[in-house]
Write a structure and sequence with these properties.
Shape: globular
CATH architecture of the largest domain: Alpha-Beta Complex
Number of domains: 2
Number of helices: 12
Structural class: alpha/beta
CATH class of the largest domain: Alpha Beta
Order of helices and strands: HEHEEHEHEEHHHHHEEHEEHEEH
Strand content: 15-25%
CATH superfamily of the largest domain: inorganic pyrophosphatase (n-terminal core)
Number of strands: 12
Largest sheet: 6 strands, parallel
Length: 342
Amino acid sequence: MNNLQNRIDAELIKEAEILLNECAKISIIPHSGPDGDAIGSSLALHQYLIKKGKQAQIISPSAYPVFLKWLPGNSDVWIYTNGKKKAEEYINSSDLIFIVDHNSFKRSGDLEGVLEKATAKKIMIDHHPEPEQIVDLMFSDTQMCSTCEMMYEFIEALGDEDMIDESISECIYTGIITDTGGLSYNSSQPRTYQVVGSLLAKGIDKSKIHSNIYDNFSPDRMKLLGHCLDQGLEVLSEFNTAIITLTKEDLVRFNYKDGDTEGFVNYPLSIQGMLVSVIFIEKDDVVKISFRSKGDVPINRVARDYFNGGGHINAAGGRTEKSLKEAIDQFKKVLPEFYNSL
């Protein structure tokens, strides 16, 4: 791939190469509640490091959706909440820790305190805005569509593009398409399509990957989606905004599993005139919120300023310990000011 230039900083990659050469035992940490990009980039990095002769382990702060568990290397992932002692011992004895697809220990869930105390050198690979200075070496680029795209460029910049085989390519492609809605947003850079073309040349079956991700849902998940659009949807036409609400009782009624609500927040954006869509999901001790927007509407500002979150201009997340009603009321209170500022 030499038509468009690799975007990884050459001086930083030299430092990364030194750290990799000096270490033997590596921890790879995706963010809590990992999505396709977090798991895909972690699995790609893990397989690459194993090929390089390193001892490496992915430790996910929490479980991730069933529709990602077909990915190559899935069985090698440790879930921190399923074995905290073993995971902490591994992290504390590591020479190097990769922080993948997040840029703040606050996004590391229950591993936040463990990572803050860990003495190993740390490398961040992430594409989200406003990274915190929590690592020794930071690869951060908001212009890349996904951390998986960054992972491809990271490996290529190390001179090991030939080590990206079909399995690694499947992981990288999964992160790219899930973080861009199938290349429908946050994907306007020509280099992205060059990377995708290279992955196809590695032999991936694009149709199979799409089927594994998008045609692999349970009947309960489909009924939950129907409930969201029928009973849980509120359209605020005057603000070009739609809200979906899911209560704890709704989740129980439809036998909710991790990942079942993935992508639900995008559906209202297909309504004519909608610029913003938000989903509020009530859990036992927190309300989780996903924000989406179109065009140049910076919905991440709302997530950051009012809901302890952040993200990209068109895709962000947040959370609050307020009640579900209080969370929705707060959003509706700040919405007019936000709308008028556009």
